[in-house]
Automatic annotation (TrEMBL):
This is Glutathione peroxidase. It comes from Litoribrevibacter albus. PANTHER family: GLUTATHIONE PEROXIDASE (PTHR11592:SF78). The keyword Ligase does not apply. It comes from the Bacteria. One of its GO terms (biological process) is cellular response to oxidative stress.
Length: 158
């Protein structure tokens, strides 16, 4: 099994098979627009701009499960990300990352890269998952891990 078996809808409602990203290194992040960690969009965008031509994709998945910090519609999220951070990496529709309604992709990610003390629960916005070119989960990073600290791990997989 790999991330390529999942689909997700973009902020514009287009269903995308993650198979589209086959052969690329992926950084999958649950995001929020009204969080203390929201400025990480800047670091994610900088990393994306530097690495996208080398076979790296960053995939953003807005989530409103943590302190109601992503209350907006898809249009509002897209506008916020572009206006405030110039986000050009792919952004998807808002999803649940925990609980029975968690997106199947997130169920897969969490079961393959457990958190602190073996927990599968995502604790907060901006938890990051690094995926190798074969679609396998390699690492999970805490919400407070800045994107630039992940760059060396990404480069090792290129």
């Amino acid at each position: 099994m790999s991330v390529y078996q999942f689909t997700a809808n973009t902020l514009t409602g287009e269903e995308v098979s993650l198979e589209k990203y086959q052969g690329k290194v992926l950084l999958i992040v649950n995001t929020a627009s009204k969080c203390g960690l929201t400025p990480q969009y800047e670091g994610l965008e900088a990393l994306y701009k530097e690495m996208e031509g080398k076979g790296v994709e960053i995939l953003g998945f807005p989530c409103n499960q943590f302190g109601n910090q992503e209350p907006g519609s898809s249009e509002e999220i897209a506008s916020f990300c572009l206006k405030n951070y110039g986000v050009s990496f792919p952004m998807f529709e808002k999803v649940d990352v925990n609980g029975s309604d968690a997106h199947p992709l997130y169920k897969y990610l969490k079961s393959n890269a457990k958190g602190l003390l073996g927990s599968e629960t995502i604790k907060w916005n901006f938890t990051k998952f690094l995926i190798n070119k074969d679609g396998e989960v390699v690492s999970r990073y805490a919400p407070t891990t800045p994107p630039e600290k992940i760059k060396a791990d990404i480069e090792k997989m290129l």
